Amino acid sequence: MFDQIISLENLFDAWTEFKKEKSNKGDVAEFEVNLEDHIFALHENLKHETYKHGGYFSFFIHDPKRRHIHKASVMDRLLHHAVHRIIEPMWNKVFIFDSWPSRKTKGVHAAVRRLQNLALRLSHNYTRTLWILKLDVTKFFDSIDHKILLDILSKRTSDERLMNLFREIINSFNPGLPLGNLTSQLFANVYLNELDQFVKNELRIKGYVRYADDFVLKHENKELLIDCRQKIEHFLQERLNLKVHPKKLILKTYASGIDYLGYVSFPHHRVIRTKTKRRIFRRVNKKNFSSYSGVLKHCRSHSLKSRLIEVVGTTDIE
Q1: Nearest to 176 by CA among 151, 155, 197, 147
Q2: How far apart are CA 176 and CA 171, in angstroms?
Q3: Residue 276, SS3?
Q4: By CB distance 3.0 to 4.6 Å, which of 14, 35, 51, 64 could disulfide with 82?
Q5: Exposed, middle or buried: residue 286 (CB in 10 Å: 0-12, 13-18, 19+)?
């Protein structure tokens, strides 16, 4: 896999993927002026194991909550894409079906639909009470332990050259992993795959959905979920050095509505979260209406969309 990653073919293909929607960025355009020289130099450094990951440029975004993003150089981000292209398909086969972030054909809206579909099945078409346990990891990306992550990766990586490359990327940032790296998204799934396997194979919970560090368990037995919570907290602390956020722990019936990934899901419908609704009304305009409309189409929102059209001040919108 190391040879596949560092091959010129993979590096050039990774560049093609990387530069999509980034061609107007100054650093990307500057890199492309001498593209072949940069890629050949990267290839040689990787081949002779002299590659050193550079530092990061940091900034904040609001999506909606404030997040601290760390952005690597174009050269390093190109390498992240090259690594991701080769190792992601292998790890994707290892992940459970209900791991939903940063995977092809998955995503937020698919996870929300899966939550409802599982609830329908587990409640026998809503003829039985279904309990929901919702958990969230405290400061997940900041808390990822490098040694634990590298130990997990080493179990499926026999090539020491590839492990050295993983170490170079992972140890380029401390503590935890930077939100801006493509490899961070994959490594986060690798890290929490340990939790996924524990919940599915040890606790044997069929009603389990995880998106990033936000996960839900569903079962008819409330006491069983309370027991699962204790076991999960212990597992996360002892195995992954992570803690459950004490203020984001929820145990309630599904019929009362579960707030998950921006939507509140009920047995027969879902609505958009109140905070999200308020944010949309603050920010909506003619340019971004179609984007917000795409969010609304995944829930009951006909009257809300009509109100947004009034706010925007036009009826010339589909």
Answers
A1: 147
A2: 9
A3: helix
A4: 14
A5: exposed
Q: Using the CB atoms, write b or e for 219-256: b if 16+ within 10 Å.
A: beebeebeebbeebbebbeeebebebeeeeeeeeebee
Angle at 84 (CA atoms; ends 148, 72), nearest 5 degrees: 80
CA atoms within a 13 Å half-sphere pointing along the CA-CB vector of 121: 10
Contacts (Cβ under 8 Å, ≥6 apart) of 59: 68, 69, 71
What SS3 state is found at 47?
Answer: helix
Measured between alpha carbons, how far is 305 from 273 in angstroms, rounded to an integer? Answer: 14
**Per-residue model confidence as pLDDT tens digits over 134-155:** 999 999 999 999 999 999 999 9
At 315, list the tokens.
Answer: 């009826």
Q: By the 8 A CB rule, do 221 and 267 touch?
A: no
pLDDT of residue 61: 85
3-6, Cβ contacts within 8 angstroms, sequence gap of 24 or more = 4/86, 5/46, 5/82, 5/83, 5/85, 5/86, 5/87, 5/162, 5/165, 6/43, 6/46, 6/47, 6/82
Question: Is the torsion defined by CA of 201, 204, 207, 209 positive or negative?
Answer: negative
Q: Which position has the higher pLDDT, 16 or 180?
A: 16
Which tokens is 195 given? 């939790």
Contact 191, 147 (CB under 8 A): no
The H-or-E segment that residue 133 falls in is strand 131-136
Interval 171-186 mean pLDDT: 94
pLDDT, tens digit, for every residue of 200-218?
Answer: 999 999 999 999 999 999 9
Output the CA angle 38-5-141, nearest 5 degrees: 95
Q: What's the pLDDT tens digit per position in 54-101?
A: 999 999 887 767 888 899 999 999 999 999 999 999 999 999 999 999
Residues making up the chain, counted from first to last: 318
